[in-house]
């Protein structure tokens, strides 16, 4: 008979898994660790949202940028969690080093991206794919560091007081998700409007460094060697010093970067509740430029050609009541008011800050002919889509859509079948709708998708363009600052309910400076030669434009 062996005694836990020597009670220690989890989670989500917001502003197409940031960051978090297993034997020191690194990288990410954008031009040439690679690099690095936090924090919690793994995970993720909620709400409602993108990121990094450093150097200092304590202290002080220096210089940095992007003669730079608005030139013989969120929306060099092409063909017919959707700069209203018989002009503009500038800025109000001083002009501050849903039917003889390019994600709904259905509803019998549809030569598919979408709601269309093969225009609703994306042409569509509207000019209005009947006919023929057929319309649930 074989005698059974006695059970082997349990192996002692490794030294790094021994209970932590805390300066406070275990319950207090657990609370402090979970509080740090809460703060770090909030900071991590702010970094994520900051990258999405800044990339959408600098690159455009917010859906793509959000997808890139989220997917890369989640992937990197998984890799970071796996890599952090090797640091469990020095969880406190590893966590301290990770938080210092995360505070520096996350806090400076917005300033670094904006600096590269400002001083390398319009991401052209060598930097043609620069913004996306830089976005991926920051998303990857921040994701790796955030992912590495989780196993180390779990180890620290277990070292304070051992408990079942399920309970420890529940506590950790509860604090993490609540912190993410606070960070996600703080970014759009506090940090972005009150501090701006750059300062907001720097403040977040400072909070991150303070929370991580205080936890490790305060609560787990007995787990660190003297050398490790001094190393972490110096590292955190260095990070805090760098972040504080950047915060102190952020105004000078913004001015220098703004001049690098917009030129040296920036006269007005403000962030409204809707967008960043910058005015340059307009004095001493320099042409005025109006930038909205980095896009050159108006240039005094050629805005007349754009606005005459948008407005004048639509005014060839009854035009007593006119609706302008967008156009807060007053330039489309200027062209409307040149026609006899106009009794009422309603301008629906989402950003009252642009309207205030158009009223009171000397150069811009002179350029728009002081249109807002005309008693026939009424301004409605509202989102065009929402406002159309409650507007009275058959109210307007002319509707002018002076809106950002359809390739900009935020504008896609304003080029949808649903939007054009609402616009059609407010047109009077015989009324006409004028639409800017983006650069035809650069994005013919997007242009003809606009035409297909207008036709899907029962409108008859007359497509045309303005431009020529050898010219580039300074401005347009689709234009990012810098010469490399200057459009060669602008595409427009004139639409009507009953029949195809004729492309012509009002014989009773002062003749435009840049258009003639013959040039309009030639522009229509040029547009027709690029026609793409069989394109489906764009809808709210299936947008078909891409930047």
Give a structural overview.
Helices cover 52% and strands 13% of the residues. By secondary structure, the protein is of the alpha/beta class. The protein has two domains: 18-261, Growth Hormone, Chain: A; 302-528, 3-Layer(aba) Sandwich (Rossmann fold). A seven-stranded mixed sheet has the order 7-6-5-8-9-11-10, sandwiched between helices. Strands 1-2-3-4 form a four-stranded antiparallel sheet, with helices on one face. A hairpin with a 4-residue loop joins strand 1 (266-271) and strand 2. Helix 5 (165-219) packs across helix 6.
Short description:
Helix content is 52%, strand content 13%.
| Radius of gyration (Å) | 29 Å
If you average the pLDDT, what whole number results?
88
Structural class: alpha/beta
CATH topology of the largest domain: Growth Hormone, Chain: A
Instruction: Report strand %.
Output: 5-15%
Total number of helical segments?
Answer: 14
Number of domains: 2
CATH domain class of the largest domain: Mainly Alpha
Widest β-sheet, arrangement of strands = 7-6-5-8-9-11-10
| Percent helix | 40-55%
In terms of quaternary structure, the protein is single chain
Biggest β-sheet strands, sense, barrel: 7 strands, mixed
Distance between the termini: 82 Å
Shape: elongated
**CATH architectural label of the largest domain:** Up-down Bundle
Q: How many strand segments? A: 11
| Uncertain parts | 1-6, 122-128, 477-484
Give the topology string: H per helix, E per strand. HHHHHHEEEEHEHEHHEHEHEHEEH
């Amino acid at each position: 008979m074989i005698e059974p062996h006695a059970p082997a005694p349990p192996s002692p836990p490794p030294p790094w898994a021994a209970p932590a020597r805390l300066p406070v009670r275990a319950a207090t220690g657990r609370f402090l660790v979970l509080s740090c989890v809460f703060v770090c989670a909030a900071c991590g989500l702010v970094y994520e949202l900051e990258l999405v917001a800044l990339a959408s502003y600098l690159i455009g197409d917010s859906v793509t940028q959000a997808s890139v940031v989220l997917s890369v960051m989640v992937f990197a978090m998984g890799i970071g969690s796996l890599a952090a297993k090797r640091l469990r034997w020095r969880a406190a020191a590893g966590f301290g080093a990770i938080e210092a690194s995360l505070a520096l990288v996350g806090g400076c990410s917005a300033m670094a991206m904006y600096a590269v954008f400002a001083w390398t031009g319009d991401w052209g040439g060598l930097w043609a794919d620069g913004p996306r690679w830089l976005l991926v690099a920051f998303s990857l690095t921040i994701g790796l560091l955030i992912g590495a936090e989780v196993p180390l924090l779990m180890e620290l919690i277990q070292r304070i007081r051992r408990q079942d793994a399920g309970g420890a995970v529940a506590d950790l993720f509860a604090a993490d998700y609540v912190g993410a909620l606070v960070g996600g709400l703080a970014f759009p409602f506090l940090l972005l409007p009150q501090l701006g993108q750059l300062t907001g990121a720097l403040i977040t990094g400072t909070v991150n460094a303070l929370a991580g450093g205080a936890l490790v150097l305060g609560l787990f200092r007995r787990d660190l060697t003297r050398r490790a304590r001094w190393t972490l202290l110096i590292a955190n002080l260095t990070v805090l010093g760098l972040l504080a220096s950047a915060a102190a210089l952020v105004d000078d940095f913004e001015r220098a970067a703004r001049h690098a992007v917009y030129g040296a003669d920036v006269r007005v730079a403000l962030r409204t509740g809707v967008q960043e608005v910058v005015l340059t030139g307009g004095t001493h013989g320099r042409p005025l430029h109006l930038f909205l969120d980095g896009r050159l929306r108006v240039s005094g060099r050629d805005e007349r050609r754009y606005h005459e092409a948008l407005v004048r063909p639509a005014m060839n017919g009854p035009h007593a009541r006119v609706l302008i959707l967008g156009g807060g700069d007053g330039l489309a209203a200027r062209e409307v008011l040149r026609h006899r018989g106009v009794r009422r002009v309603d301008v629906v503009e989402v950003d009252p800050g642009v309207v205030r500038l158009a009223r009171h800025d000397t150069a811009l109000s002179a350029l728009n002919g002081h249109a807002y001083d005309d008693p026939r002009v009424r301004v409605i501050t509202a989102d065009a889509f929402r406002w159309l849903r409650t507007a009275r039917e058959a109210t307007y003889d002319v509707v002018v859509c002076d809106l950002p390019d359809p390739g900009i994600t935020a504008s896609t709904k304003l080029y949808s079948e649903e939007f054009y259905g609402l616009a059609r509803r407010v047109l009077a019998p015989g009324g006409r709708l004028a639409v800017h549809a983006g650069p035809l030569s650069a994005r013919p598919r997007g242009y003809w998708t606009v035409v297909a979408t207008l036709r899907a709601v029962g409108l008859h269309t007359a497509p045309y363009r303005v431009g020529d093969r050898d010219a580039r225009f300074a401005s347009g609703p689709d234009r990012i600052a810098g010469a490399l994306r200057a459009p060669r042409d602008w595409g427009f569509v004139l639409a009507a309910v009953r029949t195809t509207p004729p492309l012509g000019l009002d014989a009773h209005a002062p003749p435009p400076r840049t258009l003639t009947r013959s040039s309009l006919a030639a522009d229509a023929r040029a547009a027709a030669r690029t026609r793409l057929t069989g394109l489906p319309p764009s809808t709210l649930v299936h947008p078909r434009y891409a930047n």
